[in-house]
Structures are given as structure tokens and as C-alpha cells.
Amino acid sequence: MPRETTPALRCLCPVLNGIAINATAQQVPEGEKKTQAMEAVIVTGTKVQDRTVAESLAPIDIITPEELQLTGTTEVATALARLVPSMNFPRPAITDGTDAVRPAQLRGLAPDQVLVLVNGKRRHVGALINLNGSQGRGSEPVDINAIPVSAVERVEVLRDGAAAQYGSDAIAGVINIVLKSGAKHGNFSGQVGQYSAGDGFQGQLLGDMGFALGDKGSIHFAAQALSQDQTNRARPYITGPGQPTFAADAMPGQVVNRVGDPQIDQSAFTYNGNYRFTDGIEFYSFGMASNRDALSNGYYRTAKNSRNIPAIYPNGFLPLIDNYSKDRSLVAGVKGRTENGWNWDLSYDYGTNHLSFDVLHSLNRSIGVTSQHDFYAGALETTQNVFNADVSRDFDFGWHSPVTLAFGAEYRDDKFNQGPGEPNSYIAGPLVGQPPGAQVFPGYKPEDAGHYNRNNYSLYADAEGSFTDKFSYGAAARYEHYSDFGSTTSGKLSGRYAFTDTFALRATASNGFRAPSLAQQFFQSTSTNFITVNGVNTPFDVRTFAVNNPVAIALGAEPLKPEKSLNYSLGFVAQPLDGLSLTLDAYQIKVNDRIILSENLIGTAVTNFLAARGYPGVTGGRYFTNAVDTRTRGIDLVGSYKLELGPGELELTGSYNHNKTTITAIAPNPPALSQGGLNLLRIGHGEQGRITCGSPKDKFALGGNYTVSNWSFGATATRYGSFCSWQTNSASDQTFNPQWTLDISATYHLGERLDFTLGADNVTNSYPDEVLYANSTNGQYVYSTASPAGFNGAFVYGKATFHW
Q1: Pick from 572, 532, 695: which is nearest to 137 by CA?
Q2: Residue 248 above 60 pLDDT?
């Protein structure tokens, strides 16, 4: 989606001023803003109505709309990645649909191991499953960027395992996005920007406003429209010393490829409303609609390349993938409070994501000169229906303080649909021996298509209270039963001890799980992957097999199991001085039976193996597996300091994360991969590197915001730690050095309602290390697409905002 940015004014501080929100409809009472940072009231991870950041039993980051808006970015995921120390959001390119729907990581784990909530309700996963060489390969995460920035009131990031509280997916943590509400406030803004390289122009309009529904309710609307041009950081084709050329007609110095951000056109709309029937009963509802059209690039086929037809493209061709994503969601519920103190909430939650694939400026080589150029390649769709019932109440057992007890039940129905493309997008035409299907992305075949669903129900209980003035506790348990793989139970214990009013220790221990998604169980497709073999980027038509496919079983596939996790954290909260707040949390996350995509199984023996089983022309295979156990250890340090400086006020914020993932066990290689002429590894060197060091091992950010008179000035320096890229051949492995970026901005406040901002992200025009020549496709792709800071260079923008 949009460009790589980092926060223009501030880095993360989980102890910033906040707004109290209700755990169900999340309506924000007027005047609830706090003047003391640690007094921000949180609800994620707790059922206690008035628990603050300082009192939290687990690490919580609170991100206000000011932080989000002042990053200068047009998307939520980019903003969060710059504001949350352990979040990683690289800019993959030439990775098919992943260019359009990019995944984000928390604490170095898989993108679908973090649970996303909106107003406390489970957000549906996206339809895209990441298959190619990006971080998060094999994951099916939530598309956070379908949520417009203009709709967000605040974000709470629970950096702790929470499966016992929220269910599947909450292994790395929980992101709770709270929508703007109420009738009294709104704003409208426009922004334009461009990279210093002269490309990637962006323009966006966004706004929000509320209306009263009599004196008993309100409804708040928000909308965003974005247009973004492509960027390109590919270089001319060159031939290195002793290196073979990949195409005889690609002359040195010729630019034949494109790599960078896709072209994006996106619009989004949200509403968030409530209406009080009586003092004890309230109706609430919120919903979203988002459309995104993303145009991304494949690999260039030169004029004499065997996959080109010169009669159609005399100079070769660059195939394009056009993804159109339609995202819809709706939540409606009734909540209330009885006279004897019971809080209750009944809700229905619907969400769906539909992602279509069109291949443009391409051809089907096996059809010949009559091949069409544009193809409809099929579509993916996910749907979620959730019914929730929650009750809670404070009980006075004569102990030190009341005990908050909560109980709940949930029923969820999930669906995954895969629709075929038009016949010419996948068929093998009359030209024998030529690769079938549309170049860059062969369409989904009828045998790939299917409709799958499952349901599950869960029961949970939660208790929180205090043994003494200094010692508070929490306990949660959850039972969950799935129609496709059975039952699981998880639990969590939390504690906090305040040694003084300004210093407290906190700790948590929990087990959790993540159910394999329906797409991970049943998705099938064939796609062209360019894999470096003997120094040459070689095309392979690799098929992803469902784990129950007989061919996958013949290659060693087994039914998927849920991932199981053990989470531990220990940390402190301190306020040693007025205006100064610090938190430090250490964590360990063990994940057994981690679900990943196997290596691309390629070679002559595989080609023959697949041809003998009805897949001629397919030159590789892969499938999902539970073959890896991992252990992740790290620390998060976050702080803020506010002080009067001369005639103005200075706010400093800082954050640091160190994170390391180790593979503790790899399941024995299936015997099938060592028989019948095969000599393959299910989990090889390249995939191990992606898991253990593909994301940065640390990140540091220090930001300042100085406000004086009608001006605000901001700057943030961010250091992204080293990361690695491991290849099939370890001789081509590379570790990339840390990279610094600097973001600056200045805002002039014209009166109380109009602001003008000029800013620059990565103003020093910093780029990551260049890749080794052997990994650069003859010098064309010189930057790793796993770079956490991206590889687009400096971005300059201007914005005007009118608010009321």
C-alpha cells in the first residue's frame, strides 16, 4: 500500500494521555481526558472498569489519534509500525497479492499470531494468504489498512499472550482499534506528498464528523480517499564478473524491471453509533466499507525470453497484477446494567473480505499468438459471523477489594471461498511443452476452487481484584471447541505489586493457541516463482497443495494441528519524576507446532514426480506444515518526559525493543522426500532464516515535540536493527546492517481550527544496505524487500486540516 514512513513527531509511549473507553460499544464520555499520562484508562486485557495504564497487569501501549495523524502516513499499519517498538511492517515487492495487502509482525512472530479487535470485537481475517518470499510467508492476517486513519480515536496494543481472554490468534498480542464516536467534534484534511526520487506521488482526503440522535445517542462518520502512484528502485541490467546472463537479449545498462510500492486507489467509510433506550439499556452499532485497487509488478520477460511471444510483445513485456479488495464489516449489539450491578452485552459481528486477481499486459504462452493479453485469474473470499454474550459484576466477598468476575460465551462461523479464473488464465493450450496459464500468475483452476466452512464455540471466565493495597491479580480461563480439529483450553495468571506509589512490578504467565485457518488447510494454486539457482534467477511454476491433496500426502503432508504457545512476561512501571514515565518488560513466547509453508520443493525429480501424477508443466510443490517449534525472547523499554522549556512545552518519547527468535525443534523430514529420486528438505535453510532473523533484532526510536505559540515542531530518529536474508545456498546468505532514519515536521496553528503542516519522512534519504550481486538478478534488485525501513528514500508532504 502507501509509502514507507516513520513517525513525523513522536515514537511510541504507552503512557500518553488517553480517553476512557467502554469495553463493548467503546463510547467515550465527554471530559474523560486525563492530565496525567499514567492515568489513561484502558480496557484491553481487563474487565475492570477503571483500570489505568499504571495499574495494568500486562504491557499496554496507548496510541492517540494525534500520534497516528502526525506520522504523515496514509495507512494504519505503517503508523503502528512506527509507534509500537516491537512491530515490523516491511515493504515487500514482486510478491503477487502481498504487494497489495502487506502483513505486519508483532514481536517477530507471524502476522496472523496477533489478534485484531475493533471496538473490542474480533476483526475478520483478510482473504489473502501470503505465499512468496516475504516476512509472514504462509500467514493469513487481518488487513489493518482497510481501516481508515480518519476513523481511529485511539489504539490499544496489548503486548502479551491473551488467548484465554480473546481466543485464537492472540499469541503475540492484541491490537484493539477504537473508532471515533460522539456528536461534538470532527475534522477535514487534505494531504499531498512525493518521494525525493520523483515518483510515488500521493494525495488523500479524509474527514470525520458526528451527529446527535436526539438527546439519547449519536452517530459518527469517517471517510478517506487515497490515490498513490508506483515507485521504482530497480536498476539497469548488468553482468557481474563470471556471472551468466539471465536473458541473451537483455543488454547491460537496460532497465527491464520495476520494484517498489504498487499503484493504489482506495476509499473507505465507517460509522460508529449508539442509542440509549433507557438508563440501563443501550443499542450500539458500527461498520466499515473499504475498496482498494492495487496494481503491482511481476518480472519482466525480455523479447527473446522463452516465455515471451515476440509477435505479441516485440520488445518483451512486464506483466502486472491488479488486485481489487472489497472489505465489509458490521457489528450490532445491546448492552446494559441491571439494578443489582450486572453488566451485560449481547452482540453480532459480521465481516467479509473479497480479493480478486486480474493479470494485465501478459499472455498464455501455451496458446500461442492468439493469446489474449488480460486475464481474470480468480478470487478469494473470507467471511466471519460471531455471536457474543458477556456478563460481569463486582462482588464483595469481604476481602480487601471487590472481585470483578466476568463470564462469556461465543459462537463463530468462518468461511473461505476460492473461485476459479477464466479458462484461458489457466489452461494448457495446443503448444506442447510451453508453460500453461497467464504469465506471472496463472489463474485458479476449477479443481483449486471450493467453499469451506467451520464453526466453533467457546466459554470463558475471568477474575480480577486486589489482595492488598499493593498486590493486584488477574486470572482467566477459556474452553474452545472447533468443528474441524477438536477442543483446546487455555489459561492466564497475572499479578502486579506496587512497592511505592511510583514503582511497581508486574508479571504474567499464560498458554494459548492459534487454529489453522481454512485457507491454510484448503488453499491451492500454481504461481510463477523466480528462485536463484546457481546465481541465476530462474522461473519455476510452483503449486501450493492442500494438506489433504493426495500429491501433498505423497510428499509428506499431514493434517494441520493448532499452534500451542506458552507466554511469560516480567516488567516494571515507574514514575520517578513529575512528567517522567518508564516501563520495561521482558518476555518469552514458546510456540509448538508452528504453522508455516514448506520450502519450495523443486528440481528435475520433482518435475517428473508431479508430471506422473497429473501436473505436467508444474516444476515445484509446497504445502503447509506444523514442522517447527520456536522460542522468542525480548524486552520492550518505553518512556516519556514532558517539561516546560522556555516559552513552550517539550515532550520527549523513546522506545527500544530487542527480539530474538530461535528454532528449538524441527520435525523429522518426511521419508517421502528422500524416496523415488527425491532429495529434498521440507524446512530448509532459507525458511529457517526467515523465521529466526528475517525481522530486525532490535529497534530504537527517540522523538521530540516542541510547542510554542502557534507552532509545533517535531522530530523522530529511528534506528532499525540488523536483519538477515538466507538463501537456499548458504554461500549467498547476507546480514544487513542497522539503518537510521530521521523524520521532521512543522505545524502552524492558524487560530483554533486550521492547521498547516510541512514534513519529511526519512529526510536524510537513507537507504538500506544493497544486496549481494548474486541475489540481485543481474544487479536489478539492489535492496531487500524485507528491509524494515523500506527502500524508497525520503518522502516530503504537506497537509492542511480544519477541525471543529
Answers
A1: 695
A2: no
- For 480, counting Cβ atoms within 10 Å of its Cβ (0-12 exposed, 13-18 middle, 19+ buried), the class is buried
Query: Tens of pLDDT along 649-676?
Result: 999 999 999 999 999 999 999 999 988 7
Among 589, 601, 498, which Cα is nearest to 551's?
A: 601
Contact 420, 378 (CB under 8 A): yes
749-759 residue pLDDT tens: 999 999 999 99
Report how far apart, in Å, the C-alpha atoms of 245 and of each of 51, 242, 252, 436, 536 are.
63, 10, 10, 25, 8
Give the Cα separation of 15 and 357 in Å (integer). 43
* Cell 536473458 belongs to residue: 247
Contact of 298 with 99, CB cutoff 8 Å: no
Distance CA 222, CA 288 (A): 9
Spatial neighbors of 488 by CB under 8 A, at least 6 apart, are 479, 480, 482, 513, 562, 564
Strand order in the sheet with 601-602: 525-533, 536-544, 620-622, 601-602
- Please say if the pLDDT value at position 435 is more than 70: yes
For the chain, percent of residues with pLDDT exceeding 90: 76
Contacts of residue 405, defined as CB under 8 A and 6 or more positions apart, other chains included, come to 392, 393, 394, 395, 461, 462, 463
The mean of the pLDDT values for the chain is 89
Please tell me whether residue 97 adopts helix, strand or coil conformation. Answer: helix
Phi-psi sector, 433: left (phi>0), alpha (psi -120 to 50), beta: left
Does the pLDDT of residue 531 top 90, yes or no? no
What confidence score (pLDDT) does residue 256 get?
A: 79
Structural element, H or E, at residue 544: strand 536-544
Q: What is the pLDDT of residues 570-602, one digit of tens each?
A: 999 999 998 899 999 999 999 999 999 999 999
Question: Is the separation of the CB atoms in 95 and 190 below 8 Å?
Answer: no
187 neighbors 121 (Cβ within 8 angstroms): no
Per-residue pLDDT of 134-185, as tens digits, reads 899 999 999 999 999 999 999 999 999 999 999 999 999 999 999 999 998 9
751 φψ region: left (φ > 0), alpha (ψ -120 to 50), beta (else)? left
| Element of type H or E holding 164 | helix 163-166
> Is the Cβ–Cβ distance between 362 and 440 less than 8 Å?
yes
C-alpha cell at 604: 528435475
The CATH number of the structural domain formed by 37-803 is: 2.40.170.20
Torsion from C-alpha of 341, 342, 346, 347, nearest 10 degrees: 60
Full DSSP string of 441-459: SPPPPTTT-EEEEEEEEEE
Strands 114-118 and 173-179: parallel
C-alpha 161: how far from its chain's center? 17
pLDDT at 55: 76
CA distance to 71, 260, 262, 672, per residue, from 75 (Å): 10, 17, 14, 45
Q: Where are the beta strands (DSSP E) in 338-470?
A: 343-360, 375-395, 403-419, 450-466
DSSP assignment of 494-531: EEEEEEETTEEEEEEEEEEEEPPPHHHHH--EEEEEEE
Q: Enumerate the β-bridge partners of residue 189.
A: 206, 801
Q: What is the pLDDT of residues 94-147, one digit of tens each?
A: 988 999 999 999 999 999 999 999 999 999 999 999 998 889 999 999 999 999
